[in-house]
Amino acid sequence: MGVVTKALVLISMMVCLTSVAYALSGQAIVANPPYVPSTCYGSTDQGVMIAKEHISMLANGKACGRRYRVRCLSGTNKAIRDACTGKTVDVKVIGSCEKCSQNELVLSQEAFAKIARLALGRVNINYEQI
């Protein structure tokens, strides 16, 4: 293998590992509409691919508009084997949730349904800022 090829392989591996290193683990919880008003945008509708996060993560509004790519890992009940769809969803932070824990995201029904069975209401996830 040539030097250039080795260098490209090494760079590709580093890029892949870097993106994995920034993924956070947590849980996603489904939210019921309506999704307005929100902490960040008041009465302005931000669509349905949205999320709320723990108030400590919101950083006094600096996190408003932050985007995450979310992937379902499993149901919270390990006995349910088909909890996840295998897809990811990109969501926009529109506010904070008062009753969630750190590393929990509250997803709109539409966003949650992209990654998991809606009836479950809560799943284990990985998510990363995009």
What does this protein structure show overall?
- The chain is of the alpha/beta class and 130 residues long.
- The protein has three helices and six strands; from the N terminus they run αββαβββαβ.
- The protein has helices at residues 3-21, 55-58, 109-115; strands at residues 24-31, 50-54, 67-75, 88-97, 104-108, 122-129.
- The protein has a six-stranded mixed barrel.
- The model has no long low-confidence stretch (mean pLDDT 87).
Low-confidence stretches: none
Span between N and C termini?
Answer: 34 Å
Radius of gyration: 17 Å
Give the beta-strand count. Answer: 6
| Rough outline | globular
Largest beta-sheet details = 6 strands, mixed, barrel
- Count of runs of 4 or more consecutive helical residues: 3
Query: Please, what is the oligomeric state?
Result: single chain
Fraction in beta strands: 25-35%
Mean pLDDT: 87
Strand order of the largest sheet: 1-5-2-4-3-6
Helix and strand run: HEEHEEEHE
Class from helix and strand fractions: alpha/beta
Q: What proportion of the residues is helical, as a percent range?
A: 10-25%
Q: Which secondary structure elements does this structure contain, and how are they paired or packed?
A:
Blueprint: H1 3-21, E1 24-31, E2 50-54, H2 55-58, E3 67-75, E4 88-97, E5 104-108, H3 109-115, E6 122-129
Parallel strand pairs: 1-5, 2-4
Antiparallel strand pairs: 1-6, 2-5, 3-4, 3-6
